[in-house]
TrEMBL record:
Highest taxon listed in the record's lineage: Bacteria
A Pfam family annotated for this UniProt entry: ABC_cobalt
Species in which this protein is naturally found: Leifsonia shinshuensis
Protein's recorded name: Energy-coupling factor transport system substrate-specific component
Keyword entries, A-Z: Membrane, Transmembrane, Transmembrane helix
Record carries keyword Membrane: yes
């Protein structure tokens, strides 16, 4: 009787230790995200000029494609450190390919990853719904805003700082939060995430 009760209750327990499959999938997703980072970096300069002309600081709306890796990896793997790992690996990959920002890319990856990681930690790595994803997206946007205002725009006027922070945060919510959530659901429907809780929730597998 004791063995039967244990076998029934065991699946409900959260396992926070990383498995080999977690490391492999997190790495593959992060590397792919790093390529996206690099591609977006090539497109950024031609786009940012006209966007900045609309309103100083409004270029923060373009930061979302650099913010999604940590949130995406965390939503798939659901383990402590996943957001930080995903964002840092993606940053390193884009830096190795050749990014115009050099070592600052790695610094951004750490800060962005921590911004999302803190949010998931606050939820005790137990809630992986859309609301959590959106808040994590906001967290990585706020973290990047602070870094950029200190590192890239020191001495910026208050109005610039406000617009830049708001637009970067909104971009994080939409691209890193909502975008990652929708991408996980799309991947899950293909069966690619069947070895993860994120996939089984969509397909209905136990």
């Amino acid at each position: 009787m004791h063995a039967t009760i244990s076998s029934v209750s065991a699946p409900s327990k959260r396992v926070l230790r990383w498995r080999v499959v977690d490391i492999v999938v997190a790495s593959v997703v992060a590397v792919a995200a790093g390529v996206v980072f690099w591609v977006w970096g090539q497109a950024y300069n031609p786009i940012s000029g006209p966007v900045t002309a609309v309103l100083p600081g409004f270029q923060g709306i373009l930061n979302g494609p650099w913010l999604f890796a940590g949130v995406l990896v965390a939503l798939i793997v659901r383990k402590p450190g996943a957001a930080l790992y995903g964002e840092v690996v993606a940053a390193v990959v884009s830096m190795l390919i050749g990014t115009q920002w050099g070592f600052a890319t790695l610094l951004s990856g750490v800060v962005q990853g921590l911004g999302a990681e803190i949010v998931f930690a606050l939820f005790l790595y137990a809630r992986w719904n859309l609301v959590t994803a959106l808040i994590a997206g906001a967290g990585t946007g706020i973290a990047e805003s602070i870094l950029d205002l200190l590192y890239s725009y020191p001495g910026a006027k208050p109005e610039f700082a406000i617009v830049y922070t708001i637009t970067t945060t909104v971009s994080g919510i939409l691209v890193a939060g909502l975008g990652s959530w929708l991408l996980v659901k799309a991947l899950a429907r293909t069966g690619a995430l069947n070895r993860f809780a994120a996939g089984r929730e969509v397909t209905g597998r136990v």
